[in-house]
Write a structure and sequence with these properties.
Elements lengths: L2 E5 L16 H12 L5 E6 L15 H9 L1 H11 L3 E5 L6 H4 L2 H7 L3 E3 L4 E6 L2 E6 L21 H16 L20 H13 L2 H12 L1 H15 L5 H12 L2 H40 L11 H12 L3 E6 L6 E5 L2 E5 L6 E5 L9 E5 L2 E9 L2 E9 L9 H6 L12 E4 L2
Parallel strand pairs: 1-2, 2-3, 3-4, 6-7, 7-9
Antiparallel strand pairs: 1-12, 5-6, 8-9, 10-11, 12-13, 13-14
Helix pairs in contact: 1-3, 9-10, 9-11, 10-11
């Protein structure tokens, strides 16, 4: 009876700095272990194996030739592992070309990899079925409108070609090679915030950064001071203002400097308050305009993937597990007694964390979660086993980032074993 292994969202390949595969040793080790298994096993990579969208200087099968040239060890290991277990991949949105060009079927077969050019596939597990897809069809910006048509590219394709790939080309021009990690920022709406964070902590002239730091760190204190001043001016309560003045006087030169910093912050706050109304009107009009083009303000369902799984279960009573990827967030959930599985990503991930004090940009803490799911039948039920390949989190934060923020805890833990009896 077949045991299935699932991984997804490797995003291997792309222009310039995007060609760097930070988890390649771990992926090779994972494939080596499968090469020696005595199970009747199949490895299914359910979408975005390759970053074909990220190639902007190559066209057609030249992209595949580039992959072979850049990652010879990986393809040799795929060939070796594929001699022992079946390796199957399906297209995602970032490697949608796999679905549109039959040449990929033949080229991948040379390396013992089976390409199924379908948006969904199924497998049998005991008396039940497993429904497998990438998940881009539930994402309005990346839904393929005419699957299989080489020219039916979604909005995400054009954003990627003109933004993500350019980031890979420009990454090594910065003080740090950080733009290459743009694909790791999810959801995409957080990219502007991520760019601002990296500009402040990495790209900004150090003299300017540390000159502005006292004002940013004391911004919250300044707001409290402004409240104290307003209470005194309006005659509500003057005692706190007198106490603050006495404290600053006792601190001498330090108190005078702090008083100057607070005064500047209050002036900036007043200016922002004056500009807030016209800026609000302008931003609201821009949001409305983008909404008319379908780029902003679309109605969002609470979880389109649970909705999708529910519809699949209702239409297919024999399906006991719904497997998808795309969102880069691994999970194993239960829906009406059946499994809803997200296979996560092997890319670096970022968790934005608010700073301890002041008005500083959030710090995006990097981490890895090299997840895979093992699925098999057991005593008439479906056994879902979740595991991760060990990889240390990167220690790439600056000293300032480590000082002003605390590393967040792991996201929700996933059970190592889950049994679904339906």
């Amino acid at each position: 009876m077949t045991t299935y292994y699932f991984i997804s969202d490797l995003h291997i390949g792309g222009d310039e700095a995007l060609r760097d595969v930070q988890f390649e040793p771990e992926l090779l080790g994972f494939l080596e272990r499968l090469e020696t298994t005595d199970e009747d096993a199949e490895l299914i990579i359910n979408g975005d194996t390759f970053g074909l969208w990220e190639f902007t200087e190559l066209e057609g099968m030249a992209k595949f030739d580039a992959l072979l040239e850049r990652y010879p060890e990986l393809f040799e290991q795929l060939r070796a592992t594929g001699e022992n277990v079946q390796i199957t991949i399906i297209p995602g949105n970032h490697d949608y070309e796999l679905a549109a060009h039959d040449e990929y079927v033949e080229r991948l077969a040379e390396w013992n990899v089976t390409l199924e050019q379908d948006v969904t596939i199924t497998r049998s597990v005991g008396e039940h079925d497993v429904w497998i897809e990438h998940g881009m069809q539930e994402d309005g910006h990346n839904r393929i409108p005419d699957f299989g048509n080489p020219y039916a590219n979604p909005l995400g394709y054009f954003v990627n070609r003109h933004f993500t790939s350019k980031a890979g080309q420009l990454s090594d021009r910065g003080r740090y090679n950080w733009l290459r990690d743009i694909q790791s920022v999810t959801p995409m709406e957080r990219i502007p915030e991520w760019v601002v964070s990296n500009y402040f902590y990495r790209e900004m002239n150090p003299l300017l950064r540390y000159a502005s730091l006292p004002f940013l760190l004391t911004f919250n204190v300044s707001l409290g001071y402004l409240l104290v001043v307003l209470l005194a001016v309006t005659g509500v309560w003057s005692a706190p203002l007198l106490a603050v003045h006495d404290l600053l006087f006792e601190l001498g030169v330090v108190g005078s400097l702090l008083d100057a910093v607070i005064a500047v912050n209050i002036a900036v706050t007043a200016l922002l308050a004056v500009l807030a109304v016209p800026l609000y009107v302008y931003v609201r009009d821009v949001r409305t305009t983008l909404g008319r083009f379908g780029l902003f303000g679309l109605p969002e369902r609470t979880d389109p993937y649970l909705d999708r799984a529910r519809s699949v279960f209702e239409a297919n009573p024999d399906v006991a597990a719904f497997v998808y990827g795309h969102t880069h967030r691994a999970s194993v959930r239960r829906l009406d007694g059946r499994a809803v599985i997200n296979t996560g990503t092997w890319l670096k991930r970022f968790t934005p964390t608010a700073t301890r004090l002041g008005l500083l940009p959030p710090v995006f803490h990097p981490s890895f979660r090299l997840s895979y799911v093992r699925l098999r039948a057991e005593d008439g039920a479906v056994l879902v086993e979740y595991d991760e390949v060990d990889k240390a989190n990167p220690s790439e934060l600056s000293v300032l980032e480590r000082l002003v923020s605390k590393r967040p805890g792991r996201e929700s833990e996933i059970p190592e074993e889950s049994v679904f009896e339906r």
